[in-house]
Design brief:
- The structure is a single chain.
- The protein is of the alpha+beta class and about 375 residues long.
- The chain has three domains: about 5-105, PAS domain (Beta-Lactamase, 2-Layer Sandwich); about 125-235, 2-Layer Sandwich (Beta-Lactamase), CATH 3.30.450.20; about 255-369, PAS domain (Beta-Lactamase).
- The chain is about 30% helix and about 35% strand.
- It has helices at about 5-10, 30-35, 40, 45-50, 55-70, 105-125, 145-150, 160-165, 175-185, 235-255, 275-280, 295, 315-320, and strands spanning about 15-20, 25, 70-80, 85-90, 95-100, 130-135, 140-145, 185-195, 205-215, 225-230, 260-265, 270-275, 300, 325-330, 340-350, 355-369.
- The protein starts with a helix and ends with a strand.
Length: about 375
């Protein structure tokens, strides 16, 4: 078998250029690699066929090979073919022989690995727990340090979500991931209760999380994975529940008092009116600010004039931090009856001496119809 036959059927793409850079030999593999018929190449200049190589490192290497009579090896990207080639150029008496092969897949893998490493570096120290999953089975590709802290510093990369968190079965999270992958629509969940083995000891942990499942798309626009952000809000939820329990207990106690009781927040907005106060006023409207006390609750001075809102005992306690005792005023109810009441008001402070509320207690002194 002669050399020409060997070159024709070798898997490497082999082309030969004369000293004027014209193609003089093109084997079958080169036709496939360059996506050109032999007739389109033979007799034509390399720079005519691939003008995008001019003024590039590839041109410099080829000229170095032919002028220095040395073999060179380099990689180049051909935009027209959207491909990376590895080229070995060997000088001959007639010009150059080029041995080329497609390395696009290898370059693509290297670039994907570089991108993946860059993504990991960006996410690694992010203060928000982040996990990236790939494929329909939601295989964990990357999770950052903040996420690892939620799982006892274990490493679940490479596992599917169902294998990594078997205890989440029947809690609805796997179904949510399937839904996001199937629809491509982002899911946001607030204060979701999660029961899972946090430290791998078999002991179940209960926590509340704000969760975002963001679909990831490939170059064709198809969903290829999901980015998950998981922000723990357990302390905030438990504290709010504790405060709500205290408020419920407080309300239950205050409802039993014979005296009327009205409570506001730190800005003076009414948040609670017990039954006794409601009966005295004939109204029990919440979310009323100090400027609306007089009109909403029909309050008058002892001599029958509309009570200036800013001078009402509850307003003075809420807005000016005053303690008011044995103040008197009239209430004119919607049915036309009036009652004369006496009351005390004071601001309420927390353990850090911050005002958190104001409270008014009142009782009927006399009634006039």
């Amino acid at each position: 078998m002669d050399l020409e036959t060997v070159l024709e059927y070798t898997s490497d793409a082999v082309t030969e250029l004369d000293k004027d850079w014209n193609y003089t030999c093109v084997n079958y593999s080169a036709e496939l690699l360059l996506r050109r018929k032999r007739a389109e190449l033979l007799g034509h200049s390399l720079w005519e066929v691939f003008p995008e190589l001019l003024n590039t490192p590839a041109e410099a290497e080829l000229r170095r090979a032919i002028t220095g009579s040395i073999a060179v090896k380099f990689e180049l990207f051909l935009p027209g073919l959207y491909a990376w080639h590895e080229v070995r150029a060997v000088p001959t008496e007639q010009g150059l022989i080029l041995f080329s092969r497609d390395i696009s897949d290898r370059i693509r893998v290297l670039r994907e690995e570089a991108v993946r490493a860059e993504i990991r570096n960006m996410l690694e120290y992010a203060p928000v727990p982040i996990c990236i999953m790939r494929g329909q089975e939601h295989r964990i590709e990357i999770h950052n340090r903040s996420f690892q802290q939620l799982i006892g510093d274990r490493n679940f990369e490479g596992l599917t979500m169902r294998n990594a968190f078997r205890e989440l079965e029947a809690q609805g999270f796997f179904e949510l991931l399937d839904q996001v992958y199937a629809t491509g629509e982002t899911y946001e969940g607030k204060e979701l209760l999660v029961r899972y083995d946090r430290h791998g000891t078999g002991e179940m942990y209960e926590g509340y999380f704000n969760v975002i499942y963001q679909p990831l798309l490939d170059t064709t626009g198809q969903v290829c994975g999901i980015l998950s952000l998981n922000i723990e809000v357990t302390k905030e939820v438990l504290e709010r529940q504790r405060v709500a329990r205290i408020a419920t207990e407080r309300d239950a106690i205050l409802q039993q008092l014979i005296e009327g009781v009205i409570v506001t927040d730190a800005e003076g907005r009414i948040t609670f009116v017990n039954e006794a106060a409601s009966r005295l006023h004939g109204v029990a409207k919440l979310d009323v600010l100090p400027e609306g006390y007089t009109d909403t609750y029909h309050l008058y001075t002892v001599d029958g004039k509309p009570y200036p809102p800013a001078e009402l005992p509850l307003s003075r306690a809420a807005l000016r931090d005053e303690i008011v005792t044995e103040a008197r005023w009239r209430i004119r109810r919607l049915d036309g009856t009036e009652v004369l009441v006496e009351g005390n008001a004071r601001p309420i402070y927390d353990e850090q001496s911050r005002k958190i509320a104001a409270v008014l207690t009142l009782r009927e002194l006399a009634a006039k119809s």
